[in-house]
Amino acid sequence: MAVGESRFPVMPTIEGLRLGSAMAGIKKPDRRDLVVIEVPEGARVAGTFTRNAFCAAPVIVAREHLAACTARAAAPRYLVINTGNANAGTGEAGLRDAHATCAELARLAGVAEESVLPFSTGVIGEPLPMERLLGGLPAAIAALDDGAEAWRLAGEGILTTDTRPKGASVTVELGEQSVTINGIAKGSGMIQPNMATMLAYVATDADIEQPLLDSLLGETVERSFNCITVDGDTSTNDACLLIATGRGARVVDEEQVAVFRNGLQRVMTELAQAIVRDAEGATKFVTLQVSEATSREEALAVAFTVAHSPLVKTAFYASDANWGRILAAVGRAPVAKFDVGRVTIDLGNVRLVENGGRAPGYTEEAGSEVMACEEIRVRIGLGRGGESATVWTSDLSHDYVSINADYRS
Amino acid sequence: MAVGESRFPVMPTIEGLRLGSAMAGIKKPDRRDLVVIEVPEGARVAGTFTRNAFCAAPVIVAREHLAACTARAAAPRYLVINTGNANAGTGEAGLRDAHATCAELARLAGVAEESVLPFSTGVIGEPLPMERLLGGLPAAIAALDDGAEAWRLAGEGILTTDTRPKGASVTVELGEQSVTINGIAKGSGMIQPNMATMLAYVATDADIEQPLLDSLLGETVERSFNCITVDGDTSTNDACLLIATGRGARVVDEEQVAVFRNGLQRVMTELAQAIVRDAEGATKFVTLQVSEATSREEALAVAFTVAHSPLVKTAFYASDANWGRILAAVGRAPVAKFDVGRVTIDLGNVRLVENGGRAPGYTEEAGSEVMACEEIRVRIGLGRGGESATVWTSDLSHDYVSINADYRS
C-alpha cells in the first residue's frame, strides 16, 4: 500500500557519474540488491549519517573513509550499497566485512580502499553473506552506466520493504548554464528524524566547494529527511550522500547559492515525502504545520508529538475527525508555560479548536470531509511567537502491524 | 483481549467510606456510568492530576476544590465520577457543567459545593449530558454502601474501553493494629507516564497527616502509574486520589511509614499493572528493567524509548525475538556519550546482546521460547552507573488498531 501515484522521473545524465546494479542473492534470489555508484575524479562528496548510538558497521566505515578522503581534498570514487542485510549489531565481524567489501571493490576498480564507501540496509544482526555480495560486484561494475535506466535500476536496487522506487530530479538555471540535481532514496519503516532507515543519494553536476557542499547538505536534510516520521524509530544505518561532480556550472555567489539550495531542497523534500507516502501500511499522507511558536525547536517538538501519537495516527487511518486526540497530543507536548487557550487547530480549511475547546462553527460533517482525503493538512497555531515547522507523517493501519509482525526487518 | 486472568478482590470494608453507582445513560443505556464515593468527616485526601496542558474541566474544578478543602484543613466529602464523556475540550461550558454537577450533589448531600470533586472519562469534546447525569445522582446516592459489592460495582462504573474492572487490596500490620488499603482504577488506552487516561481511587483507614499523605501519594504514583505506557498518549483527565479516613491505626514513625508505604506501593503497582494487562488490544505484558544507568531519569528515558517503539511492540505481538529492533531503540534513546559496547540486553534469562552485537551463545530458538510467553521481561544494562528503573508496557496488535480506528474515545 502507498499513498498517491508512483512517479520515478526519467533522470537526465550527470556526466561522469555512473550507476550499476546486480542481483547478488544476498537475501532472496532474483532481487536487485547490490548497487555501485561511480563518482568521477575531481568531484566533491558530503555525507550525513544516523545519530543512533548503535550505528551499523558500514556507517562507521563510510564515515571514516569519507573523512579520510576529505582530509586529503579528494572525493570517494565508489559507493557500494547492498540491501537485504544491514550489517548492524554484528560487532567486529561486521566491521571486517564492511572493510572487505570496500577492499574487493577497490581491487576490481583499481582505487584505494578508502575511496570506497559501503552502505547496507535490511535485517539487523545477521552476518553479511560475503561470498554472494563479493560475487555480485563484477556484474554491478559491468553494468555501470550514466543513463536513465541505470538510475531507475539503482533506485530499485536499494529498496527493502518499500513498495516502489523513489526518485526526484530538478534542473535549475544558474545564469547561462543549467545544473541538474538527481536523487534516489529508500525508506519505508523505522523512519523518524535524525536520519532513519533511509538511504539517499543525490548527485549534481554543479561545481561546489566542500564547505558549502557540507552546509547545503545539512540545511536541506534538516528540512526534509529530518522532518519526516513514520514510526518514531531511528535506524542504525541511515545515510544521505550529496555528490557534486564539478563538471557543470560553478555555485559560488549568494544568488547562485540561493537558486541551487532551492533546487536541492526540492529534490530532498520530494524524496523525503516519497518515503512517507510509501510508509509501511500507509493509507494517508499527513502534513503537520505548527506555527506561532517561540522557536523552530518548539514547533518541531509539538509537530512530532502529534505525529508520533498512535491515537492520532489510528484516527487518520479511520478517517475520523477525532480532534480531541489531536488536542490531547498538543497538550502533552514538551512546551513550557503553555497557554492552551491561545491554541488553534485547523484540519484543511476547517477550524477545529480555538479558545481551549471545539471551534463554535465546527461541524462533524466538515471535519469528516477533510479526513476522507488521502492527503491531509493539519495546522496548529500555538499563539506564542513567530516560528514554525512542518513535519510529514503517515497513519497507523492494520497493514503497518501486519508488515512489522510478519517481516523480520 | 487482555493478558492473564482477571481477579477483582473481595474488598474489606473501610469504615465510613461508602461507594454508590448508577446507570445514568450518559452515553449508552444499561451501562454503569456514574459513581459517587462518600468520604467520612475527618478524613484526609491527597490528589495528583494530569500534566496535559489541555486538562479537562473536571480536573480544573477537582484541583480547585481539593486545594480549597486542604487550605481549611478539611477533606472533600464526595467524589463524583462519570464515564462515557470526558468533559474535555469543552471550554467555559464544560467548567459550568463540572460546577453544576458538584452543586447538585452538594445540594442532595447537604454539604458545600467545594466539598465535592468531579471526575469524568470518555469521549473528548462533547458536552456533558447534564440532564441524564444529574438525574442519575439520587440513585447513586441511594446505593451508597461500604461492602465488597459496592466496591466491585464502583470498579465497573468507572470503565471506558477497559475489558474488566481493576481492584487491589492489601492489609498491612502496624504493630498491634492492621490497616487496610483498597484501590480501584480504570484505564486501557491513552496511557503513558505523568498520569494517563487513568482514574484511580485508593482508600485506607489509616490515620495520616496531610503532608505525609501527599508525599506518599507522589512517591508511589511515581513508581507505578508513572511507569506504565500503552501508547505514549497522556490523557486530559487523569487523576489519582488517595483517601485516608483516619479511623484506623496512626502512621507516624519511620517504621510505620515504611510498612504503610510498602503496602500502598503494592496496591498502586498492582492497579498500574492491571491497566497494562488490559491495554487496548494487548496480548503481551512486558516488563522493561533498565539498570546500570547514571540516573533514574536516564534509565526511565531508555525504558520508555524502547516501550514506545512501534517496531519493538509489533515484534512482541508477533512473538518475534527481533533483538535488532530493541538494540536500535536503545541506541536512539536520549543518552549523552553512550558507549554501546557496554550495553547488555537479556530477554528473560537469555542474553541477546553484548559487546555491541549479538551475544555469542544466543540462539533464535532460545529467544523465541521467551517471546512466546504472555509475560516477557527485558533487562537492559547500560554499563554506565548504578541507577535503575522499571517500566511496564504492552504490545501493538491488530486489535489496538481496530479498537482505536473504530471507537471514538
Strand percent estimate of chain A:
15-25%
| The CATH top-level class label of the largest domain in chain A | Alpha Beta
In terms of structural class, how would the helical and strand content of chain A be classed?
A: alpha+beta
CATH topology of the largest domain in chain A: L-amino peptidase D-ALA esterase/amidase
Q: Which shape of chain A, going by the Cα principal axes?
A: globular
Q: How many DSSP H or I helices of chain A?
A: 11
Rg over C-alpha atoms of chain A, rounded to the nearest angstrom: 22 Å
Give start-end ranges of low-pLDDT stretches of chain A. Answer: 192-196
Total discrete domains of chain A: 2
The greatest inter-chain interface is formed by: A-B, 66 and 66 residues
For the residues shown, what is the average pLDDT of chain A?
89
The topology string of helices and strands of chain A comes to EEEHEHEHHEEEHEEHEHHHEEEHEEH
Protein name (chains A, B): Arginine biosynthesis bifunctional protein ArgJ
Keywords (chains A, B): Acyltransferase, Amino-acid biosynthesis, Arginine biosynthesis, Autocatalytic cleavage, Cytoplasm, Multifunctional enzyme, Transferase
Binding site for substrate (chains A, B): 160, 186, 197, 280, 404, 409
Family (chains A, B): Belongs to the ArgJ family.
